[in-house]
Amino acid sequence: MAVMAGRVAELLFGISVPNRLSLHSRKHVSVSERAKCAVSAVSLGDSSRTSFRRPRTTRSSPASPQRCLGRTRATSAGAGGIPSRDEELLLKKKAADLAPHLSGSSIFLVGMSRTDKSTVGKHLSQALGYYFFDSMELVETAAGDAMREMIEEELLNAETEVLMQLSPMVRLVVATGEGAVVRPRNWGYLRTGVTVWIDLPLDHLIQRIAQSGPPPELLEDTRKMLRERAEYYANADVTVSIGELAAKKNIDDLGSLTAPMVALHVLEEIDRVLKKT
Fold first, then answer.
1. Which strands make up the sheet holding 194-199, listed edge to edge?
2. Mean pLDDT by 10 residues, the chain (277 residues)
3. Torsion angle (degrees, nearest 10) of CA 42, 104, 85, 68
4. Which runs of E-coded beta strand occur in 111-211?
5. What is the rounded distance in angstroms from the CA atom of residue 95 to the CA atom of residue 124?
6. Do β-strands 131-134 and 107-110 pair in parallel, antiparallel, or remain unpaired?
């Protein structure tokens, strides 16, 4: 892990992502008191549901544009639909309205694979002027060819290292691996920002996986995995239901939802949670 930590640090070195000016002990706070960080949660491994915290921002230059390390996935979000100019403008307007209330808080997207966390995350980062990272792409880049030999436990350890190194930073959108939520320690890092569950209906998720012609046991494993992990995902500060979004827009085919539509809904749900506290 020391080697992995060094490689991740090298990847992040030189990127002008602002850090918090100070760190405070974790306590339960309302959304309107987001200035506290989750440092004690990192050591305690507390995975309970708590409000996300707004970190202090630095006096550095304005938020940097989207930046992504590792290979880029050329997939559309939700998402067979082609984003319209109006959708992009609505997303940017909502981001501009919400940004002062976020005060630089990072956004961590959680959920199963094939739910387009990375694609949605890139649109969020562009709209907010945040950096974007995919935690598993960072693992892949840091591990190189050795990743093919890594077992699941080693991959989880590597992602924990990535999240630890990203957690002191602000103004990030981070797409996490599907297994990040099962480790209590990881929640300490995730709680330094806003956690958002991209909740894609199981049937639609299975349809996406089935398109690649996997063996039947893989589909059943996916069903079992989502049932087991749903309770972890539900600990997120915000749940974005893709099924509810499609119903709200009277869209029958979830694949017609575009990335800006989903990203806008993420910001709307974050705003709703802020206003409730």
1. 131-134, 172-175, 107-110, 194-199, 238-241
2. 72 70 34 32 35 40 38 37 83 97 96 95 97 94 86 91 95 97 97 97 90 84 92 97 95 91 97 88
3. -50
4. 131-134, 172-175, 194-199
5. 8
6. unpaired
| pTM of the entire predicted model | 0.78
Residue 51: alpha-carbon gap to chain centroid: 16
Contact 238, 195 (CB under 8 A): yes
Task: For residue 104, give Cα distances in angstroms to 49, 198, 218.
Answer: 21, 21, 39
The span from the CA of 256 to the CA of 39, in Å, is 41
Amino acid letter, residue 214 = P
Would you say the C-alpha torsion 146, 151, 154, 159 has a positive or negative sign?
A: positive
Question: Looking at the chain, which runs of residues are DSSP E strands?
Answer: 107-110, 131-134, 172-175, 194-199, 238-241
What is the C-alpha separation between 109 and 132, in angstroms, rounded? 11
Both tokens assigned to 117: 């966390």
Distance separating alpha carbons of residues 58 and 55, to the nearest angstrom: 9
DSSP state of 255: G
Q: How far is CA 277 from CA 33, 52, 271, in A?
A: 9, 11, 10
Instruction: Output Rg (C-alpha) for the chain, integer angstroms.
Output: 18
